[in-house]
Amino acid sequence: MSQNNAQDSPSTFKRHLTKHSTLGDDTRYVNSKRQRQNSQENVEEVYNNDERIEEWIEPNMRHGITFNVNQAGNDRNQTRISKQAINYATDCHFPPIKIVCTPKIQNQNGAGFVQALTKHIEKKFKNENPTCKKLLAFDAWWVNSEGDMMVLTKCIEIFIHLCILANYPHEINNIKIEPLLPKYLPPPFSILIKFVHNHISIDEIRQEVKEKYISQYSCNELIGTKTNRTRHVRVDFTDRNDYNTILNNGQISFFSQLYTVNEFLEASKLVICSKCNSPGHMKKQCQLNYDRCRRCGCDWETGNHFECAIQCHYCSGEHLSTDYKCPALADYRCELVKELKRHPECLPEHVQLFIPAQCRDRNDRSHVITNY
Predict the structure, then answer these.
(1) For the segment 330-360, what is each residue's pLDDT rounded down to a tens digit?
(2) What is the pLDDT of residues 167-194, one digit of tens each?
(3) Which terminus of the chain, N or C, has less C-beta within 10 A?
(4) Is the Cα dihedral 167, 173, 178, 181 positive or negative?
(5) First vs last Cα of the chain: how many Å apart?
(6) Are 80 and 26 in contact (CB under 8 A)?
């Protein structure tokens, strides 16, 4: 079981391990300017690098992209993909699960709390996952500044088990708990129902799916897929059997009409520096000598940046510099996809990455990257 070393103050997680890429030194590309639409097919959260994941990278890792830090970025003509960017794009990233505690706990009481939680879930977990040979333990845990417990695992079986409320006790060591679960499950437990008509509400879809597959975890419209007539819907399941059944069927019916079911594939994730707002590196490796506002691009320490004018400091567009609609980020993502296609061995065996339409080659319409 992971142990927190800091005992005298609420801790902040600074450690997270991941395997390193098999690539060698940073690879350089000449990135021609392209015009793209601002739509996206698979949209995921912007991963502004939290300090909790800074230890993913090597201490001497160089930047993954070269931006002009003094100008808007219109004269940028070179992109560099780093090992750090490759690792982040291909590795599994399960969010930490927050357990709200009443009363709040102190850091020195965290070890006993985690041990009691592990003991409670152990028997049921082993019965439901007899083939899982991994040790039932967390990759990390910590007590946050609010006095609540945060637990982190890279084991997908443990993560799924913790995403089911029924697997938690009502209280641990006389402390009432309330787990705050993630909105989505990992892609290996997610499917995509395509071109569902808009006249069928999302609540009706949830009800129809729930009647057929009781382990439905979430059901939401996929952002960026809605047209005047249809949209795609993502559904997550906690039971692997339900996931396999609906995927093998390849179809599902709503109100006597069939809709196609495909596996949900996640797009490559971008690591974005929270200091300079550039993709390809984290704050720890940033060479900029000030914190840059995402809204206006100026020094965060000078002026009021809660109401400053929004103008991207890379393309001068009316959006945040970390917004995926920015052409600079769209260009970077396409270069990252090209590198992943050249080195598919960087992907873990169970991972498949979705290639957005704007990143596909004209002569190669494949929409998936795998390592097999």
Answers:
(1) 888 888 888 888 888 887 766 778 777 778 7
(2) 999 999 999 999 999 999 998 899 999 9
(3) C
(4) negative
(5) 34
(6) yes
β-pairing, 230-237 with 216-221?
antiparallel
Q: Name the phi and psi angles at 341, rounded to 5.
A: -70, -35
CB 201 within 8 A of CB 233: no
Strand order in 251-254's β-sheet?
Answer: 216-221, 230-237, 190-197, 257-263, 251-254
- The Cα 292–Cα 313 span in angstroms is 10
| Cα atoms in the Cβ-side hemisphere of radius 13 Å centred on 343 | 18
Pairwise CA distance, residues 337 & 358, whole Å: 11
**Which residues have a Cβ under 8 Å from the Cβ of 260 and sit 6 or more positions away?**
193, 194, 195, 250, 251
Q: For residues 209 and 203, what is the distance between their CA atoms, to the nearest angstrom?
A: 10
Q: Give buried/exposed letters for 338-360 (b at 16+ CB in 10 A, else e).
A: bbbbebeebbeeebbbbbbebbe
**Distances in Å between the alpha carbon of 99 and those of 1, 9, 56, 298, 339?**
18, 19, 24, 37, 38
- What residue ranges do the domains of the chain occupy? 97-180, 187-267
* 166 backbone dihedrals φ, ψ, rounded to 5°: -65, -15
